[in-house]
């Protein structure tokens, strides 16, 4: 009787073990992604949803494969699915080996390596020791990732509420603070780009704006520049050598609303409205305490920074970019992040009544270069770090689009709310001349935040 029952017990155990192997091998990339991007991900629910979708897709495809190849063992099919899923997120390593600048070759090499491994796994999956061995390998990969995540979570800062300044508002005009990411100063545009920004600046003056012609940014990165502005001071401790810079995870929370400016405005009776541009996670809405207005909604097939960062771990982003280029698709699948996204939601902002303080960070004219001068979209590379000198003419086209849409935006604000206080500024300039290639004293302060690709730590 014991001999007869053993196969009945063994088969379910093997099936459960194969599913566990699939869960392990497909989960390694997600745990590492969360660990490396803990600064930028406010909470892991979206990542968990993506992981469950990958798991479900792998199981469904495995069942379809079983229906097609009836003689194949389902445990072997699950093992092949596990290694295929693992290789799906191993693409950056293969791309790095190939050289990184030839996506077609990278995809081909990745496909060959994946097929080869899948064949080997399928061939040996019937052996008794194979599934336990794969499970052990999965655990060996998973343990350091989980340990690193636990360590990162234990050291995650718990910020208290920033102290509000003891100020009293003489009048309660609505305040619109609009940040145009990567917008150069007028004289820089003229000197290095041969671009005359005078018509745009003069039009702002006609609308009673005060234009500061010699303003400078404190830092060449969004997270440092904006967090310093919102903290009303430089967040660098220069008393020691080298100078100490706060961790990015701390600064990111300041950008998202936990800062002196927002606390002070609230203390004066203002409602805080946070515009999430729908592109980058650094400026996403805080989890609580703010009215959240989300831009870039309703567009067909749009990816935001989370999608780009996660898909950049796979061949899919390169495949999409290649498809756009070769098929000459005149539309970008990547999120817009345009000024018009705020203009389209302006009525919703103003419907809350006053007084309110709006922070709207627009990811334009910052790359990717996705707009023409008339604001029509073009096929774009997903890389948010691409400050290629050959893109300068296209960047100026995108800048012209930003000017056009910015004037439309402020015109509608002033027309509807003539007493409003409107501040329009940039967070930093461009990096076409290598201005952002700065070394930091503490490598840990960089933060592996996702800016299109995990290996690139700077937010240009």
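^ Assign residues to that structure.
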């Amino acid at each position: 009787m014991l001999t007869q029952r053993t196969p009945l017990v063994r088969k379910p155990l093997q099936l459960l073990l194969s599913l566990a192997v699939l869960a392990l091998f497909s989960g390694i990339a997600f745990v590492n992604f969360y660990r490396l991007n803990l600064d930028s991900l406010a909470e892991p629910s979206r990542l968990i949803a993506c992981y469950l979708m990958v798991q479900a897709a792998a199981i469904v495809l495995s069942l379809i494969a079983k229906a097609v190849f009836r003689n194949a063992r389902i445990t072997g099919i699950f093992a092949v699915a596990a290694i295929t899923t693992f290789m799906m997120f191993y693409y950056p390593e293969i791309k790095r080996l190939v050289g990184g600048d030839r996506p077609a070759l990278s995809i081909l090499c990745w496909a060959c390596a994946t097929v080869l491994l899948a064949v080997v796994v399928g061939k040996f999956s019937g052996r008794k020791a194979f599934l336990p061995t794969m499970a052990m390998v999965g655990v060996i990969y998973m343990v350091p990732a989980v340990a690193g995540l636990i360590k990162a979570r234990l050291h995650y800062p718990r910020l208290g509420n920033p102290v509000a300044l003891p100020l009293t508002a003489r009048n309660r005009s609505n305040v619109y603070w609009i940040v145009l990411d990567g917008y150069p100063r007028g004289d820089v545009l003229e000197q290095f780009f041969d671009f005359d920004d005078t018509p745009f600046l003069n039009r702002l003056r006609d609308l009673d704006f005060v234009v500061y012609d010699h303003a400078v940014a404190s830092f060449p990165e969004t997270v440092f520049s904006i967090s310093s502005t919102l903290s009303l001071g430089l967040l660098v401790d220069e008393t020691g050598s080298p100078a100490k810079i706060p961790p990015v995870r701390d600064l990111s929370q300041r950008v998202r609303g936990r800062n002196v400016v927002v606390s002070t405005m609230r203390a004066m009776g203002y409602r805080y409205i946070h515009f999430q541009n729908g592109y980058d996670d650094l400026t996403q809405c805080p989890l609580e305490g703010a009215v959240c207005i989300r831009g870039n909604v309703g567009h067909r097939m749009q990816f935001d920074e989370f999608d780009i960062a996660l898909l950049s771990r796979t061949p899919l982003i390169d495949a999409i970019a290649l498809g756009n280029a070769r098929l000459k698709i005149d539309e970008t699948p990547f999120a817009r992040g345009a000024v018009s996204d705020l203009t389209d939601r302006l009525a919703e902002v103003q419907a809350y009544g006053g007084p309110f303080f709006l922070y709207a960070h627009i990811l334009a004219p910052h790359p990717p270069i996705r707009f023409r001068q008339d604001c029509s979209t073009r096929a774009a590379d997903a890389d948010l770090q691409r400050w290629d000198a050959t893109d300068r003419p296209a960047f100026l086209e995108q800048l012209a689009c930003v000017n056009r849409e910015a004037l439309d935006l402020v015109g509608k604000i002033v027309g509807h709310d003539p007493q409003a206080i409107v501040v329009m500024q940039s967070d930093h300039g461009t990096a076409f001349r290598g201005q952002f290639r700065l070394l930091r004293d503490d490598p840990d302060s960089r933060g592996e935040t996702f800016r299109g690709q995990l290996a690139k730590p700077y937010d240009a």
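The longest helix spans residues 2-36.
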